[in-house]
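User: Can you model how pyridoxal-5'-phosphate sits in this protein?
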Amino acid sequence: MNYYSTNNQAPIADLHKAVVKGLAEDRGLYMPERINKLPQEFFDNIEKMSFQEIAYTVASAFFGEDVDPDALHDIVYDTLQFDCPVVNVKDNIYTLELFHGPTLAFKDVGARFMARLLQYFIREEGVRTKEKGEVNVLVATSGDTGSAVANGFLGVDGIHVYVLYPKGKVSPIQECQFTTLGKNITAIEVDGVFDDCQALVKNAFMDAELNEHMKLTSANSINVARFLPQAFYYFNAYARLKENVKIKKLNNVKIENLVMCVPSGNFGNICAALFGHEMGLPIKRFIAANNSNDIFYNYLQTGKYEPKPSKQTLANAMDVGDPSNFARIYDLYGKSHAKITSLISGATYSDEQIKETMRACYKDSGYILDPHGACGYQALVDGLQEGEVGVFCETAHPAKFKEKVDEILGIDVAIPERLAAFMRGEKQSVAMSKNFADFKAYLMKQ
Ligand SMILES: *Cc1c(COP(=O)(O)O)cnc(C)c1O
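Assistant: Here's the modeled complex, given as structure tokens:
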């Protein structure tokens, strides 16, 4: 499969190049040249298939031309060692729980899949740095990306990961998820803010001497290998809902009127859902749920895309003022505002509304929402029409935002064992100044 850039000014790339480079030369995002439709019998029998079986079928449609079938099978089954259940919250509103992976957030799937695909290509082509015989991934994080990437790449031989994070600016729960791992993961605690971490990574990619010394790559969320696998979730949502309807004989649930609602920040997750729709997944319409960062919401209303500086909110993994994957959605629908608005609607919520939603949902149903999922739930409460059934993504386990959730709901959210295990681990990190010369000197010694 060939990949072109959304800016159309870069050479066509194959999957290997698209994964290693992440961003095209013209700073556009890579798009597959074709989106293969899946056959009708797949959808007719999907409720009898497991999450892993469904994902392998979907992965084959995307990556089957470029990856050996057995290797792809291995990558998919290694990535998905957990479930992705659909749970009824209230009336005709269901949630797709995307938080059963290693770091309890949906980014786990993309991160692990990318790690294993990169490893496959490294092995396949024998691409190794001369001295060390490995590829080095640099990632700057303000919290969640670092934990998903670190855990996704943990123990994957041939790849070393350096996670740069701002000292004192990451919550203890987040910090322990990438500082306690050891093995091929090195946490670097930068005496600065997130932007300093990002600047160090950018400078490293541009430094000729450093790139001569070691092979560097990024694990950015716009990477095709990180965002496309998220489509697996949506096929599974359809399958599990269909299964539920059949087993429980829910005659009032009309699966053909399925509305999918995705709490969105950089719009990678919803973009993967839209790719699924292009492959034939029968979803009637989509809702992009936002916090008060309302750039996409405004685009839907006005047809104008106007990026703004991001605002800090309770749902901080969605604090994005210029969502990168907008370029992919725009390209997918031929830049047509009419097409986009006919399929996708929006919603935007303030911190006050998020809190109210969390309280109301807990009181009505006992379900504990995290602040991101709360935007999705409320968008369905407000936007679902007669005869429709809604599924919203719960993108992170509420315990990941324990301090906020406890305070808002007046409860003591139980910490899952997986998270508790991270918290018992011993923190190991390398202290670093924010000066590039220091960071470079450190890497040159590796
Ligand atoms: C990353 C993230 C989001 C936003 O997902 P996008 O793909 O960037 O739109 C939502 N919720 C949580 C918990 C996240 O970590």
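A couple of observations from the model: Residues 56 and 139 are 28 Å apart (CA to CA). The longest helix spans residues 107-125.
User: Helpful, thanks.
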